[in-house]
Amino acid sequence: MPGVFHYIGDAKDQLIHDPVTRLVNRQEFERRVKRVLLTFSQENDADESEEHALFRIDLEQFVTVNKVCGHLAGDELLRQFTFLLQHVVRVRDTLAYLEVNEFGVLMEHCSLNHAHRVANKILQAVQGFQLFFNDHCYDINVNIGIVPITKQTGNFVELFKQANASCNRAKELNKNSIYLHSEGNLGPTTYRGEPSWVADIYQALDEDRFLIFIQPIVSLKELETSLAHYELLVRLCDKDGKLILPDKFLPALERYSMSSVLDRWVIRKAFRMIADQPEFLVTTQFFSINLSGQSFVSHELSDYIISELEETGIPAEKVCFEITETTAISNLTVASDFIRILKEKGCRFALDDFGSGFSSLLYLKTLSVDYLKIDGSFIKNITYGSVDYAMVKAINEMAQTVGMETVAEFVESHEVLQLLKDMGVDYAQGYNVGEPLPLSTFFCEMPRSFA
Asked: What's the pTM?
């Protein structure tokens, strides 16, 4: 049984930190939230478009563990769950232990889309998390309420009421749910757990309404390779012909364990489309395909991929699979085995959204990946001397030290592109270097030099 941790620090540290989790306590968390709210009241300095986000996270099993196994087990659960959260939230965010089974996250300078991505990462990490204590095993469930903080946000008390209401609404939906409170007193809007999505997705698969898009990954080195790099992306076309982005339908897929169905569809569809384009394979060094956590923890997926490679004749070295940092670390042994099996066949691997858990640099030796894709939240606001700049520089140097190449995501301006190039980042991806196109359109427009 792990030893009991007692937090030791100076008097000031003890006043603002919880002794068990070492996270900031409720009083300090409230002070930081109030500081953010104050910036909006200072009209001369406030940015009308600035966005922040507040999470309230409930750890459902804590009370049960405390009652059945005692306070030692409860404290151990809090410490393990804290460790999990620290590998998901950005290092510059405020993670707090509020009380009993409640955690809070203050994400400054963060869009709602990114906040929702982080919340989904938390749920993905929790899916494989269990507490073992004195011959007892507990599956852990969490519910997350998200509240945006904008110029229109009311006072601190109202903000916390909204966070509590959103988290309570998430509990009503089901275990491991997210509930997002909308602005303008329009009431909360759920982003997960909508059964209608399930029927829509199966119907879309039957009607072939999922589309594969392709986006370039551009070399930033002076001596650029003549071979191109790409990432394949998935979009859903609704019945009216409107494109739906993944952040709208992927949560439903994850919730109802359908992610592997779509992953296999993408692999099969992409391999067959590309196999019919030999000129693409000749001019391409590799193309990337994203895999969900639900897929790669399945022992059958590696066999499926190998079978598809053999059937289509796609060279394994032309394929790179992307898995997220959070999912890989949460399933370290499984991820390592999965990567090893396919790398032996010649496939490449990239660790996506890297940087959300900075201490995960320690895992790079265990995960034999070829590329690190630096989380776009660091890239979007990067400037000389900023914390984001220091983070990207450190990640880039560490990755290259262990023999990995780096890819910067969300490169949306020439200034950011030049900063990354000066820093020595290997590749860039984003609207500034190339927008996504439907794969079929891309093939139609590609020069036919290899008839």
From this structure: 0.61
